[in-house]
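WARN no homologs supplied; continuing
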Amino acid sequence: MSVNLLPPAFYTRNRQKIMTLLPSGSMAVLFSNEEMIRNGDYYYPYRQNSNFFFLTGIVQEKSILLLCPGHKNPAYREILFIRDNDSMTDLWEGVKLRPEEASAISGITSVRRISEFLKLLDEIAFMSDEIFLDLWPVPKGGAMIQGAEQFGSLFLKTRFPLHKYGRLAPLMQNLRLKKSPEELMAIRSACKLTGRAFDRILHFVKPGVWEYQVEAEMTHEFLSQGARAHAFSPIVANGSNACSLHYTKNRSQCVDGDLLLMDFGAEIALYASDCSRTIPVNGRFTPRQRALYDAVLRIYRRSLGMMVKGISLLQINRMLQTFWEEEHVGLGLYSMADLRKQDPAHPLYKKYFPHTVSHYIGLDVHDVGDREEPLEGGEVVSCEPGIYIPEEGIGLRLENTVLITQAEPIDLMADVPIEADEIEMAMQKRD
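OK structure emitted
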């Protein structure tokens, strides 16, 4: 399962689609991610910019894609620039892509060295009225780090101050929202591998193991089967650690009688899967844990059934409020009298379920897409209800990756154990 699992025709088709959306007399410039310093002269593992990968399949720094669909010279309508090769780079970092290799991956005929970029940029920009840049309105997550897109955009605006500038992000979001057969192949592969990792974990977890050892089991399964990485930093949270929604320290010991919440997923061809499971460390749910688990599983089933064409993800979340309230009252978390007195702006159920039940999944585990827009079919989303009770030291979440269709939703992780009885049975088979 290589990084470039998808065929070059996929990237060619994506470029053709985006170029049909660009207005006459325009060009688009996209920059690859750069390597990010970890410390000293050591870098974090490289991950390509998702939009750049979607259009090129190239997983290498110092790359630029220039699109100019209306240019009179066909060779200038799409150009991929890759870094120059030299013997020292080959020696210290390994051999970088040659033009013929980049062309074979991307389907782009015109592949040039990045040292040629400025000359061709000036020539093509002179014939263009508008330049489209791949910038989001604000950095995702409020990040303060300036990447190649920010620096590249500033450079272009300085070099061509009289040009009009447009936003590529909304166009790319529309293209990436509905998944193609090639993308679904990658996501299905990632889901299958994630299920294999969970099976491994069920036979490994017991009192006394450490969260980081559980993470190591996931990583072993992913890497041994050809995945390059986790789709995101895995959450392995014993006991009260699970009440922190994005807990990723994974340094605590798994305690007899506690629950272990895991949120994890493999990445195949840069496409994500997303799975959450909560299991009893000792292999048996207590009556209270089982009651909580079954309540979340019932909400999961309701949520999954709502994920149909014509309804938005946030609508589903709002529609679940009554069901959450019924479950919470039945679990003794609050009473009907409390519900009658609640502040509608701060509903009681949010105390125990503070996040939403779904997000889009694709090249990003929290992928592009407007959760207020009705589903149309072809999207891949999560289904992830949970319950978090700090005073009881319990956090519990169940999550699968789901394909929206024109009819019923397809659970892409339907074969991954989720019933409490299934989990207990599998854990009794531990070595």
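The CA atoms of residues 6 and 185 lie 9 Å apart.
OK
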